[in-house]
Specification:
The structure is a single chain. The chain has about 500 residues and is of the alpha+beta class. Helix 14 packs antiparallel against helix 15. It has two domains: about 170 residues, no CATH class; about 230 residues, no CATH class. The chain contains 15 helices and twelve strands. Strand 4 and strand 5 form a beta hairpin. The strands form four sheets. Strands 2, 6, 7, 8, 9 and 10 form a six-stranded antiparallel beta sheet that branches. A two-stranded antiparallel ribbon has the order 1-3. It has a two-stranded antiparallel ribbon with strand order 4-5. It binds adenosine monophosphate and magnesium ion.
């Protein structure tokens, strides 16, 4: 029995914020997966989303009390401003409140045309739906803030891209699907009342403690800055490349959102790019913190009029808050990296030692994840280093570095088992490697075989645990399996 209705507080913001629209039904929906664990965690049993129902997750049936809508937003895409983006193929069904009192947005992607579709068909191909499901759930298990995947369905309809593909729909949840681009939408229209209404909504819904503040909008800015700094530091620690860090893909609540041509690195390269549309490397691995700041400057521009009526004064007030991003990012980065390297204590030389390993990894074509996996298995003496050394083209360089690393570890005061446990809790065994995702998608799209997807999903549920018999999932791709580029697949 549903005792906990779905509401849509976004609906009350007014017509300029969205288009009121229902999902377009699909021909032959089949449920691929329903996230039982997530349903339990969020206490969804008392809501419409407590069970595995293909018609519901296809948008063919919507809960009685839902007020579905397509959210309006703008965005800087690869640096260029587009005033009218919005949910061109997605629907916000509304919010459910968890037993703990948290408000959770329920959002579906691939649900048909809206006022924001422009030339698009409003649909998603099954491949990207499966990719988002796998990567977002893996990110969650890895400990990274992210939208969660609640369900995926195939639609029984074809979508037309470079070739004909089966269609899919993903239902995902997050604290919010409001983006930096949502603020830009109102600023671009000179609608300051809209910016204020949106900011007040975010504060009311997500950061009510800020209501007590004398400077709530600066407080909001600080919160978003801190969330992005922490988030991007975590991406960097796992070798994750988002791929499309446009302002319309940056959440106001600090979750990773909109998994498009994202990827985890195999062999390490500072400037690694995967996305086929990122020709100039704007969203390269090592550029992600800079772009995070660039996006936050766009948000700040929107909030300035709320910070002070005088534009110059507002800039002066906001400036030091923005500058905190870099400091905060570096703090998060160093804290996370120290744990990966086994350093509980803090020494000034740590950063140089950390940077040096990354340089050797780049030079030696070492696999990102396996390097840290092997590092967390090394002993204090060099007797068992063979598997680690084998990852590097250049054994002498890494051998010299390991000697320095052990010297550094000898300055730790805690016991060595504690060091290993800490390292193993932050250095994953399994990540959603690109070639594995590709194989799951190929099997599903080409042969209608979902067993590859399910098997991979299962392994990624426990990324920090060695799972006997699952060694193949740890491995780097064979030369013929290497995925050089990922596609939006939109
Ligand atoms: P994305 O690259 O998925 O973040 O999307 C960027 C913008 O393009 C958003 O406004 C999307 O809603 C829109 N969009 C992407 N694919 C489609 C599609 N197939 N049909 C309609 N709109 C789309
Ligand atoms: Mg997007």
């Amino acid at each position: 029995m549903e005792t906990n209705p779905i509401k849509n507080s976004y609906f009350d913001l007014g017509r300029v914020f969205y288009q009121s629209i229902r999902p377009t039904p699909v021909r032959n929906p089949e449920l691929i997966i329903y996230n039982q664990a997530l349903g339990k965690e969020l206490g969804l049993a008392a809501t419409a989303f407590g069970s595995a129902d293909a018609a519901l997750y296809a948008g063919n049936q919507i809960p009685e009390d839902a007020q579905p809508l397509a959210m309006a937003y703008s965005g800087h895409q690869f640096g260029h401003f587009t005033p009218n983006l919005g949910d061109g193929r997605a629907i916000l069904l509304g919010q459910v409140v968890t037993p703990g009192g948290r408000s959770i947005d329920i959002h579906m992607k691939g649900t048909g045309k809206t006022a924001f579709s422009r030339d698009g068909d409003g649909r998603a191909a099954l491949g990207p739906v499966l990719r988002e499901y796998l990567v977002s759930e893996a990110m969650y298990r890895l400990g990274v803030p992210t939208t969660r995947a609640l369900a995926a369905v195939s639609t029984g309809e074809a979508v037309y891209r470079e070739r004909i593909l089966p269609g899919g729909i993903i239902t995902r949840v997050a604290a919010s699907f409001i983006r930096i681009g949502t603020f830009e939408y109102f600023t671009a229209r000179d609608d300051m009342a809209g910016v204020k209404r949106l900011a007040d909504y975010v504060i009311d819904t997500h950061y009510p403690q800020l209501k007590e503040s004398e400077t709530p909008y600066l407080g909001l800015l600080d919160t978003v800055i801190e969330g992005q700094a922490a988030l991007i530091a975590q991406w960097m620690q796992l070798g994750f490349i988002h791929g499309v860090m446009n302002t319309d893909n940056m959440s106001i609540t600090g979750e990773t959102i909109d998994y498009g041509p994202c990827a985890f690195m195999d062999h390490f390269a500072h400037d690694r790019v995967f996305s086929s549309i990122d020709r100039h490397g704007r969203y390269a691995y090592n550029n992600q913190p800079n772009i995070g700041l660039w996006n936050l400057i766009r948000l700040t521009e929107c909030l300035l009029p709320l910070i002070d009526a005088d534009a110059e004064t507002a800039v002066k007030i906001a400036q030091p808050h923005l500058e905190k991003f870099i400091h905060s990012y570096q703090q998060h980065w160093l804290k996370g990296m120290r744990a990966k390297f086994g350093f509980k204590s803090e020494f000034d030389e740590d950063k140089a030692l950390i940077d040096e390993l990354f340089a050797i990894m780049a030079e030696g074509n070492a696999d990102f994840t396996l390097t840290f996996y092997q590092l967390s298995r090394l002993e204090m003496d060099a007797s068992d280093d063979a598997a680690m050394l084998a990852l590097f083209d250049d054994a002498p360089a890494i051998t010299r570095w390991l000697a320095k690393w052990r010297e550094r570890l000898r300055r730790e005061t805690s016991d060595d088992d504690g060091r290993k446990t800490m390292m193993r809790s932050v250095n994953p065994v399994y990540i959603p490697r690109n070639h594995l995702i590709e194989a799951a998608i190929r099997a599903a799209e080409d042969r209608g075989d979902l067993t590859v997807f399910h098997a991979l999903h299962e392994v990624l549920q426990r990324p920090y645990e060695v799972q006997p018999g699952k060694e193949a999932y740890m491995q780097q791709p064979q030369p013929h399996e290497v995925v050089q580029q990922t596609f939006c697949g939109t």
